[in-house]
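Late entry, written up from scratch paper. The run itself happened at the end of the previous shift, but nothing got recorded in the book at the time, so transcribing now.
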Amino acid sequence: MMIESTRDGGSAVLRVEGRLDREGAEYLSQGLEELLRDGVRSVAIDLSTVTYISSAATTVLSRWRQELAVLRGEVQLTSLPPAIREALDILGWDSRFEANAGSGAEDGPMDLRLSSWQVPATIARSGEYQMSAGAPDGTLCCRLHGSADWLSHVPLGSDDCDVVALPRNSFGLGLGAIGGAYDDCRDGLGELLAVAGCVAHFPNDGARMADYLVGDGKVAPRAVLASGLTCEGEFSKLVRFSPKPDVDAVPLSEVVGVCLDAVGGAAAGVVIAAETLGISGARIRRSPAAPAASPMEFEASALRDWLSFTPERASALTTTLMAGVVTRAQEGPLAAHLRPLGWTGGLYGHFHAAVFSYRPLPQRTVELGVLARGLFKDHQLRDVLHLVWDDRGEDGVAESTLVRGVGWVAPITVVS
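Output as recorded:
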């Protein structure tokens, strides 16, 4: 069997020749996986010169059809010879896979307003961007929790922590733990991220793996936060991005800067789902509420006892869910929670990330909650990190770099 591929942006045509038996089906599956990794979301498979097709091939095609449907893409079969069409009828083939036979994935009605993407009037060094409208008047209310300088007065008691609800119309990040009571959480406080009712947390109670909770019930998940913030409301813009043709990846600071400009505010809340080339981050090693905890001395050895940094940009070829806040001035109520985000642009922010095994992301509109739940339920959660910018020049690891993805953004109008 032979496969010839022709690409046009996010679309591709595969021309298959010969027998689509079990071996050929595996070969086809590998080819489809490579296309998805390269950003292709629409595939037409030309079967005009195929002489045989087996159940193994239809199994592979069904699996990739489902995968692309989640990504709001499609797989279609074209130019079927009569013998192949007859074989597909015997195999019980779903004709919706065929070109012009229907829409394919049954995703229900879409908000066409969210599907209208436009190229913004922005100049960016590394990325290409498109924008779409979300909720026209969408804004976020931001609430601060605990103390940003918690390291100077550990161990933390119950009065130093807040129990917060994390509903689906919110995101949150900081130093915390999943749960509703300080006594149950104090020994496990660690890096935490919550997006759209899904919570990721790396406990510091001896655990070696990150934990998570997907809130599918009527009651919102809760977390104990010793230091951090939560934002609640609606997103007014979606920002889609990918690297320019001669660039490998886009720096996080550029993406969040474009997001901030898109909503024209002094401060913005941003959630980003991205395929990543590398993540630059840190994670706390111990709970600051543990009885034996003591204030940290800001010396190299003490820092190593408290914090674990990525020695290089880690987590290449992964999918990452990030959330945080970004401003162009380190002032106001948010100031203590903000750090510089990069060399240029005068950006300050605070972002956390949940890192998953690799999964291609949609290049069309998709609901944030649907995407987040898919990541948590179907893919391995590898880590939860506080994102950092390493400004040590050639000795540092710089910042996180993203291959492609989408950001949800809204201006922050209230901080309390």
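The longest helix spans residues 22-37.
(Scratch paper discarded after transcription.)
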